[in-house]
Here is the input.
Amino acid sequence: MLRGGAGILSGMKRRGLALHWQILIALALAVIAGRLSGTSGATLGVRWYAVYDFLGTLFLNGLKMLIVPLIASSIIVGVSGIGGEGGLGRLGLRTLVYYIVTSLLAVLTGLGLVNLVRPGIIGGQPARNVIGLTGSVQAVAAHVHGRGMADVVGIFLRMVPTNVVKAASDNRAMLAAIFFSLLFGSFMATIAEPGRSTLQAFWQGVLDVMMRITDLVMRFAPIGVFGLVAKVMASTGFGAFVPLASFFAVVLAGLTIHMFVTLPAILWAVARIKHPWRQHRAMAPALLMAFSTSSSSATLPVTMECTEKRAGVSPRVTSFVLPLGATVNMDGTALYECVAAMFLAQAYGLHMSFGTQFSVVLMALLTSIGVAGVPSASLVAIAIILSAVGLPLEAIGLILVVDRLLDMARTAVNVFSDSCGAVTVARLEGEQGILEEDPRTRELS
Ligand code: ASP
Here is the structure.
């Protein structure tokens, strides 16, 4: 599996510059171009902003087009291939425990920092009085209107699709598609021959084709990344962050601790990986892709390719842990939700008792499972938490300006945690040879 998928990463290397360097250069150029042109800069009547938008959207569409068939085929192939003797149950349980423990650690890191720094209090005053709300509040309020505690239950209700075809046609309903694929894969393994091997060959074929198409889409990654990031830079810039600097810094610090301390510690202590930093190197292309697209789902093809080819995890584990993780395991998002809700409570001068903070932690954990792997998806989850603790939804307006950049950072952490999950579960399943070589020296095909 994924054999065809090794092509682009190695191909890029053979032709000279490795893919992640190409993407990094594209990122740097995008920052410069976006800042120079702004939203109105034009040459010969063509607005640069429209060009960025076109390039970025085209690339993102290409990635999104892969999500449904990739998730379905990899989960079905993964689950049906895990086999009997309690294999699926054991693998599933380990994966689930990893997801819950790491998400909880992430939320607690965020909670600790936000209580320590108190970014919602500026100069001794609740930040709301100092900053004021941004203009586009109404749009958000309309988007998230009517959310409440019942939505947490709703997440689990929506997990069972009433119509499989409808679920598969909506990138935001991935949890339902995953649920059905899990069922399909596990029962596919139990039917009689020749049906079983015919179906197995079919889904394996679909997966191989999807990875080939991933290769094609990834050829355009540097151009797509340029478009996506230049667009953000042109419209948002850095200036708007100044009043929210400490909120921004708290989220970034939390994400950094999780990515560079907590997760490597798990890799070292639980997965017994001697050189955890190699995981960052192995995942570099996927991390840059997550950063540029702000979408774990869109990054999934690259995450799978890197985890398998550069970190050395077996297809058996990657095709189960990663597609599931892209929707279910979101450490960065959980951390962000908790920090954002606490920040807004501080900014509105709301006292948060221990009990309320505990419920914020719980809701951040639960909603991060239901949040779709698409840009800004956590805003809806934050709305759910806000209504539960009794804050007005307009409060979200305060964090809107910084949401986009923080989305890029938290998505990278989401993807990195998924990949660490694959490594950890694979090691617990007794796999050898993971991250034994420096990924930079590793030939990919
Ligand atoms: N953009 C995030 C992701 O795809 C979700 C979120 O936190 O908004 O992982």
